[in-house]
């Protein structure tokens, strides 16, 4: 879809200022030395004796992300005597919880990545409002914006946002950029030009995780927020304007400048549709001398995949720049996160559930989670020196500095049937678009039909 791209014969062998500054970093990605540093930290909260109690916690995380969370639950076990088991929830958290409740064996706590799903849980009476001890930690450590994201339709608070994501980041392989003689771009036009220059140098520019529909929603949301602006973003998220609106047409046209050029995508469109998120990262950073791809887009948790599956050093081999501004728009600031909620169909939260949520809302848990990297906390009281390197610190500082001036992931705000389910809604609609970027009208018609069904109008 980019007619001015180079011919094959030419091919040779906001977030905020804190994030912008990371483009110049050349620092090693060394983590904390060991867990001794963790044990030396003085606890900030008291936890009850829960000997003999057990908790089952459902979470979508796997691999390094799950391992880092288990570090947090291990400390809770040590301090309370309780036993905590982490079980996989899968991508469809709503289906997971509903099935478990129907079967009479719901988890005690579940991590919910979508505010819309959290509200559905509260409306269904599946989860219990937070107790005073947890609210005290929230008031001490969280801005009002992060607290209200976990509010139900009744205005009560039901969850603790334990894990945040800065979803306006593009990670790049320094070797690929050195080969091409390019530096991080600050606009979408410059990004596309940079991609073509990387292609001419002999490296495929971008690895797109099209096999995971959620990554495609993040591409769209960043472009839409920057190009259409925050007010339109809010209206589309609430389905106050249809997906056939001209602003969506413009955003898909812009995204098509990348998706419509097979040469810019590792494996082309078909290969991208078979690439999952972890593979998109390893494609970019496993081979440091002859990288398969030069760039990969996704949130700060890319760092965990890099650390777990490659030898790349964050800040040396793997670097990051903010998602570029589109047209005359401002650089986008898209965030996401996971909220811990207490599953209690009978309406009664147990002492163990309350203690666990209070612990997760404290800096005690956040510090342990942050040490290995690949994690950002919305807890504003957490000291930045707990993060393992300056790249992670810069990303965390940017998130906290943004305060409440951000937009939450659009797909996570919508009903789960539209924004969070494999094979339908936004995930499927944007996979359809990646498969055929010329059919913008068809993609919009599908998205609007799916949205109308999910929103009930």
UniProtKB/TrEMBL annotation:
Q: Name one Pfam family in it.
A: SBP_bac_1
Cross-referenced InterPro entries, in alphabetical order? Answer: Bact_solute-bd_prot1, SBP
Tell me the Gene3D superfamilies matching this sequence. Periplasmic binding protein-like II
Keyword annotations for this protein, in alphabetical order, are:
Transport
Is Mitochondrion set as a keyword in this record?
Answer: no
Keyword Transcription among record annotations: no
**What is the similarity comment for this entry?**
Belongs to the bacterial solute-binding protein 1 family.
Name the PANTHER family on file. ARABINOSE-BINDING PROTEIN-RELATED, OSMOPROTECTIVE COMPOUNDS-BINDING PROTEIN GGTB
Name of protein: Extracellular solute-binding protein
Q: Which organism is it from?
A: Streptomyces mimosae
Q: What is the lineage of its organism?
A: Bacteria, Bacillati, Actinomycetota, Actinomycetes, Kitasatosporales
